[in-house]
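Risk mitigation, structural track. In case the binding assays with guanosine-5'-diphosphate fail to produce interpretable data, a predicted complex structure has been prepared as a fallback.
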Amino acid sequence: MQAPSIGGVQAPRGGGQTIRLPRGASLSDFADRIGANPASLVQIMLHLGEMVTATQSVNEETLQLLGAELDYDVQVVSPEEEDREILESFKIEFGEDEGDEGDLAPRPPVVTVMGHVDHGKTKLLDAIRHTNVVAREAGGITQHIGAYQVATVHEGEPRKITFIDTPGHEAFTAMRARGAQATDIAVLVVAADDGVKPQTIEALNHAHAANVPVVVAVNKIDKEGADPTKVRAQLTEYGLVAEEFGGSTLFVDISAKEGIGIDNLLEAILLTADAELDLRANPDMDAQGLAIEAHLDKGRGPVATVLVQRGTLRVGDSIVCGEAFGRVRAMLDDNGDTVEEADPSRPVLVLGLTAVPRAGDNFIVVPDDRMARQIAQQRAARLRVADMARSGRRRTLEELFKDLEKGQVEELKLVIKGDVSGSVEALEDALLKIDVGEEVNLRVLHRGVGAITEFDVNLAIADDNAVIIGFNVRPEVRARDLAEREGVDIRYYSVIYQAIEEIEAALKGMLKPEFEEVRTGTAEVREVFKVPRIGNVAGAVVRTGTITRNSKARLIRDGVVVADNLTVVSLRRFKEDATEVREGFECGIGIGYNDIKIEDVIETFEMQEKPRV
Ligand code: GDP
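Fallback model:
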């Protein structure tokens, strides 16, 4: 079927036919589906005001626009849907418990601790862990694996609670952004001496958005000036009404430092779980869950902490986790003890994967290694396309012209490497959210876990001016040499906030600077001297600020500028040359301008770069 020409270009019309394309598809992919020549689609897009090449990944709008033009019903498939389709082709369903009601057994709640910086999240996670030492063999060394489980007794019953121990909501949001939800309950930590702060609200919003019930831990009650009642009052404004105020949210006063109220908090978590959630899973199926954290261990290779969400994970299982796959060689808990089986809500460190998965990647036990590898490969192929879509920014012709007019298109490109995938994703997420307006674009070329390698540096070189960010990682020797030789900027951070602040500043620095005039000093002319070869010089007294030699100046008479674009060419104090003279002092000022009169004012100023706000 040939189309009536669009802007003189021929392309087959769809007649409303549906075509499915993955997010991040190119015009070439589109052309493939409809049996058209890619070049003709490029031309059509050009007529529609967008310049894209045939193989470049385009965004959904562009695909829809082209679809509408050619009369196709374009369905852009999200990465999650696509993943589901990949799994379906292997007859695997992720996220569903097999069997019926009778197969479900209660599982422990999974808790994330959130709150404003310095309100005690880390301390609380430590304190909870320590109240539970009884459950641990003497001499066991606790390890940070990204999550831990504690045992407690609730209403006479032994119960467990799982805590994700990467505090803060960055990790939480990064996971959610990938469609993964690990958390059942959020503990919102608020310091009683500081009250509700911006990040408290942010954390609360994230919990609400994720539909996760909140238990409030009012911390630092040991401190002078602690006002737990005020915290309760403040939070009512945000819809969290304490039980004692007639609401349904549990508030628990604690001191993470002194270990006060920790048991009450655990109790409140279980009460909330029992009242608001139906936490059950089928333990008798092939395990499924999420990767919470992962990194490359020198001795052990890729290791990932996974949270089992349903089924039971066993040593020897074939698993696929994101793009990584393998056979579970060993499992360890947060005491470093080996574990043979992990049931629902249990976090374990898994050894035996071929690669480092990303935080939020799902893991699935499959019948054999071959299937695991095939799924992983299909996912990897899909992710490459999705990554390309993410980095490719569409420009309309208008935009392109505008940028050309302005002279330059500014873009800060980054390569992010970190010690664990959770922090890499959290950092990338946060960086991409920095808003510095339209002129500057931030692009992440590559991200990964582990030391900065030659590959990373080469990537930065290839895409000139890319900056490498090392979050708790350092470059390998050869990578460092290469970076030095080629002048590639590597920046090291160990605190996410610091990284965000600096990159934000860098982005602002890349914006074309705006200058503003700042007055540096004024001087009143008292006498006029005639100096041979120099001309007239003002005998003056500095009235405000400082007069500095070589600074820019203007001459003002009766409030009117009589001469501008002058420079302080000579500055003398008691016949000595001076570099600057401060307020209240007399001096001789030469401004290279002869028409000076008594009572004139010499004003000096400098151009300062205006900070962007
Ligand atoms: P985070 O940023 O929320 O993880 O906060 P931290 O757990 O690092 O705690 C911040 C500071 O508050 C540290 O100096 C802690 O020792 C202190 N802190 C935490 N909990 C308490 C508490 O219950 N009482 C007192 N007095 N100090 C606390």
